[in-house]
């Protein structure tokens, strides 16, 4: 009596790897990536010579990882938030938010121990802080004694109160 083996011989198994089927999760990740790239105006951002493409790609990867997590909560800046809240904020980010985050990274002078958590917090907080940040920056600049004066020492071409063009 002979028995048929249901497992193929080792040589055959190595010669023909199983074909990988696209799963629903793979498709969701692909779709989320496309949406994120469109929302942040990725194609426009990479044309800007001041933006480091590698840095931008890392931010996109972190956003994608966060949006696609199956966790119920996500820790941001030491606090646990419902994952849906974090995902919602990330999906609302646009190109100006990304510029804001990149500018913040460039201006930072303190040592960042956990860059992933730091970026996650910056991205999460960007929509809530961007307007106030720029308002404070303008107020600071206008309060400087040399505000409005030409930086080059040349006349700026503006007219005084009793002058006209």
The whole-angstrom Rg is 26 Å
Shape: elongated
How many helices? The count is 7
What is the string of helix and strand elements? HHHHEEHHH
Q: Please describe the biggest sheet, giving its number of strands, its sense, and whether it closes into a barrel.
A: 2 strands, antiparallel
Q: What portion of residues is helical?
A: 55-70%
Unreliable segments of 5+ consecutive residues: none
* Strand residue content: under 5%
Strand order of the largest sheet: 1-2
Termini Cα gap: 109 Å
Provide mean pLDDT, rounded: 83
Q: Structural class of the helices, strands and pairings?
A: mainly alpha
- Count of DSSP E strands? 2
Helices and strands, with pairings:
Layout lengths: L9 H6 L8 H16 L2 H4 L7 H15 L5 E4 L2 E4 H9 L3 H13 L7 H28 L23
Antiparallel strand pairs: 1-2
Helix pairs in contact: 2-4, 4-7, 6-7
Describe it.
The chain has 7 helices and 2 strands; from the N terminus they run ααααββααα. The chain has 165 residues and is mainly alpha-helical. A two-stranded antiparallel sheet has the order 1-2. A hairpin with a 2-residue loop joins strand 1 and strand 2. It is elongated. The model has no long low-confidence stretch (mean pLDDT 83).
């Amino acid at each position: 009596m002979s028995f048929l083996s249901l497992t193929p011989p080792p040589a055959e198994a190595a010669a023909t790897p199983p074909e990988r089927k696209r799963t629903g999760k793979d498709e969701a990740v692909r779709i989320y990536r496309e949406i994120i790239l469109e929302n942040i105006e990725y194609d426009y951002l990479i044309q800007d010579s001041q933006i480091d493409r590698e840095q931008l790609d890392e931010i996109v990867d972190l956003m994608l990882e966060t949006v696609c997590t199956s966790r119920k909560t996500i820790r941001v800046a030491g606090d646990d938030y419902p994952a849906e809240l974090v995902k919602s904020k990330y999906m609302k980010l646009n190109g100006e938010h990304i510029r804001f985050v990149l500018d913040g990274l460039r201006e930072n002078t303190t040592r960042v121990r956990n860059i992933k958590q730091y970026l996650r917090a910056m991205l999460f907080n960007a929509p809530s802080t961007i307007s106030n940040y720029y308002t404070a920056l303008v107020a600071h600049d206008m309060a400087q004694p040399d505000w409005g004066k030409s930086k080059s020492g040349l006349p700026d071409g503006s007219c005084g109160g009793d002058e006209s063009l």
